[in-house]
DNA sequence: TTAATTTAAATGTCGTTACATTAAATGTAG
DNA sequence: CTACATTTAATGTAACGACATTTAAATTAA
C-alpha cells in the first residue's frame, strides 16, 4: 500500500514533499514494530539503542558524550537513560580516570546477555522484511544519504 | 555524508538493517528541522499535522477518530492536541449532529490564516532540499512503500 | 597562581506521550 | 423494551522528552 492510501491523502505538492511525509510515516511504522519487539525485554527503544552502542564499544567504555553523539535521536537524555539501565543492572558507571568530569559507562554481562537474546528477535524481524532486495536497500540508503546532503 | 559517518558506525549487518537505521536517523534529522520551522508559529509538529488534516477536510468537519486515523504518529493523543489548538482559537469543536458521542472539529479562519503563513516557510524549506531530483524522490517513495508492504 | 571560560554530566521543570480508565451514546441480542 | 456490548471521546497517571540550570572539573588567560 502506497503512502497515499495509508494516510488517505490523494495528492501531494511534489514527489519530494510526498517523500518527506513518507519518511516520517515509515519511521512511525518501523518504530511501532520496534517498541513491540523490545517490550518483552522491558526495554524502551532509546534504552536498546544505548545498549547497542555500548556493546559496539565493549570492552571499552563510553562516556555520556559519546552516547549522545551516536544516538539516533540526539534530543533524548542520555544521562537518564543510563540511570534506567544502571538500575536494571545492564550497565555500570565508573568515574573516568583521565577526566574526572566524565563518566565511563560499560555494558555488564547481564546487558550483553539481554542483547544477545534480543538479537534473535531482531534478526527474525528484519528477515521478515523481505520486501526489499539487497540492491533496493542499497539504493534506498543512497537516496536517504543524498536527501540529507 | 552517509549514515555510516553520521552515527560513526562502520559496518552494518546488511543493506537492509542499514536502511532501517537510515530511515530512523533521517526521520530524526527531518523532525528536528520541522520543529524549528513550526516554533515561530507556536505550534508543535503534531499540532501542525492536525491543522493540515483539518484544512484538507475544510469546510467539512473531522471527528477525533478521523484525526487519529490520518495522523502520522498514531500514538499521540488527538483529543489533547485539539484542546491545545482550541485554546489558541485555531480550531473549534461542535457536537456531531448524527452521533452525539462524536465531536466535529473544524479549522477556524484564524487556523487557516496561520497555516497559510506557514505554507510559505514550508515551501521555502522544501525548495531548500534540492539534493534530490523529482525522479529520485519518486524512486524513494517507491522503495519506502515497498519496504512497508 | 588565580580568575574566568569551557566542558561533562546531572538535575529541576514543565509539557507531552503512552496507556489505562471512565463516561456517555449507540448498537445489538434476547 | 431491557440488558449487555461496543464505540467515541475525554481524563488520570506515570514515565519520558525538551530545555534550562547547576555542579564539578579541566582548560585557558592574565
Description:
The structure is a homodimer of 149-residue chains. In chain A, 62% of the residues lie in helices and 7% in strands. Chain A has 149 residues and is mostly helical. Chain A has two domains: 1-39, no CATH class; 42-119, Arc Repressor Mutant, subunit A (Orthogonal Bundle), CATH 1.10.10. A two-stranded antiparallel ribbon of chain A has the order 1-2. In chain A, strand 1 and strand 2 (103-107) form a beta hairpin. Chain A starts with a helix and ends with a helix. Chains A and B meet through helix 2 and helix 7 of A and helix 2 and helix 7 of B. Chain B binds a DNA duplex (30 and 30 nucleotides) through helix 5.
* Sheet with most strands: strand arrangement of chain A: 1-2
DSSP helix fraction of chain A: 55-70%
**Distance N to C terminus of chain A:** 28 Å
Number of helices of chain A: 7
SS class of chain A: mainly alpha
Q: Which second-level CATH architecture of the largest domain in chain A applies?
A: Orthogonal Bundle
- Largest interface, C-beta within 8 A: A-B, 53 and 53 residues
Average pLDDT of chain A, to the nearest integer? 92
Indicate the CATH class of the largest domain in chain A.
Mainly Alpha
Topology diagram in text:
2 copies of one chain form a homodimer.
Chain A: H1 3-6, H2 15-38, H3 45-57, H4 64-70, H5 78-87, E1 91-95, E2 103-107, H6 109-128, H7 134-148
Helix pairs in contact in A: 3-5
The structure holds a DNA duplex (30 and 30 nucleotides).
Amino acid at each position: 500500500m502506497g503512502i497515499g492510501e495509508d494516510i488517505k491523502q490523494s495528492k501531494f505538492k511534489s514527489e519530494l514533499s510526498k517523500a518527506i511525509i513518507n519518511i516520517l510515516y515509515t519511521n512511525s511504522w518501523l518504530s511501532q514494530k520496534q517498541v513491540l519487539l523490545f517490550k518483552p525485554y522491558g526495554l524502551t527503544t532509546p534504552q536498546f539503542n544505548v545498549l547497542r552502542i555500548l556493546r559496539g564499544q565493549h570492552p571499552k567504555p563510553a562516556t555520556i558524550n559519546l552516547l549522545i553523539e551516536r544516538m539516533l535521536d540526539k534530543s533524548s537524555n542520555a544521562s537518564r537513560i543510563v540511570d534506567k539501565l544502571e538500575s536494571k543492572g545492564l550497565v555500570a558507571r565508573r568515574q573516568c580516570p583521565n577526566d574526572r568530569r566524565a563518566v565511563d559507562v560499560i555494558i555488564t554481562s547481564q546487558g550483553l546477555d539481554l542483547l544477545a537474546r534480543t538479537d534473535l528477535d531482531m534478526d527474525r524481524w528484519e528477515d521478515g522484511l523481505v520486501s526489499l532486495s539487497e540492491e533496493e536497500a542499497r539504493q534506498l540508503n543512497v537516496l536517504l544519504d543524498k536527501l540529507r546532503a
